[in-house]
Amino acid sequence: MDPLTFDGKVAIVTGSSSGIGRAIALRLAKQGAMVTIHGLDLDEVQEAREVFIDSGISESRIVTVAGDLRKHETAEQLIKETVKTWDRIDILVNNAGMLSKPGVPQDSEENFDFLFEVNVKAMIRLTTLAIPFLEKTKGTIINTSSITGLTRMIGVPTFYAMTKAAIVNYVQYEAPKLADKGIRMNIIAPGIVKTKITIRAGLTQNDFDEVAKESCEKEIPMGRIGTPDEIAKVVSFLASEDASFMCGATVVADGGAMLGKG
User: What order do you get walking across the sheet with 10-13 strand by strand?
Assistant: First the structure.
């Protein structure tokens, strides 16, 4: 029996139509939460919904929203649809993010602006809208950063790493303010995990497999990359009352990659 339960709780998980976000939302749902699934692509969101239903999650415990979080109306819709359906928000997982803007140079100003809009401003916008509801439920916020926001990782795009560092700084400064409202805000910082974000950034599956193999051999003490479900388990803990004394913390789940091989 799973010791963590979220019966009666309502969670919004952005970027949950695939990858880590889907794993997080599905885990919370299996542990009893009602969940709002979000993704950029409507077909992917609907596919995720079917996966949830096939996994035994009742349709009445699922809300879906598709849209670009760079647009204020998408953030508003996420809050509106969730509250209209369940009249509360207990958990917000700001997971949506991109590695780069497809089709533009990594070091271009266009890519810089795009990444900060998607990875940072969208997170802040949705958090701001959710705070009044989270204050009522004494809820929790988990923001997805990365070990690239904590230390230099060879081969990681500079602007992407900057956005992940910005998330860490945001939480460190805002978490104490939210604690005064009874809201806990913490960070999950994954290492290398196989998700669609790499494909959207222009890497082929073979490219990713090669990078992952090289990283495992040279950098990761545990000798493998992580799975979305392993990250979801950490997020589930952070969302639970078992983490009730955690505020502004950054939890690293990277197989020891930040330590390196001895």
Answer: 62-66, 34-39, 10-13, 91-94, 140-144, 184-190, 250-253
Q: Rounded to an integer, what distance in angstroms lies between the CA atom of residue 105 and that of residue 101?
A: 8
Residue of 67, 25, 76 lying closest to 48 (CA atoms): 25
Q: What SS3 state is found at 194?
A: coil
* Interior angle at CA 101, CA 98 and CA 103, nearest 5: 145
Q: Cα(258)–Cα(167) distance, rounded to whole angstroms?
A: 18
Rounded to two decimals, the pTM is 0.93
> Which residues belong to the active site?
160
Which two three-digit tokens encode residue 16? 């949950």
CA–CA distance, 32 with 252 (Å, rounded to integer): 25
Task: Indicate the DSSP class of residue 262.
Answer: -
Q: CA-CA distance, 179 to 152, in Å (whole number)?
A: 30
What letters, b where the CB count within 10 A reaches 16 and e where it falls short, cover 61-74?
bbbbbbbebeeeeb
Residue type, position 111, single letter: N
Which pLDDT tens digit goes with each residue over 85-99? Answer: 999 999 999 999 999
Say how far apart CA 148 and CA 250 lie, in whole Å.
13
Per-residue pLDDT at 203: 53
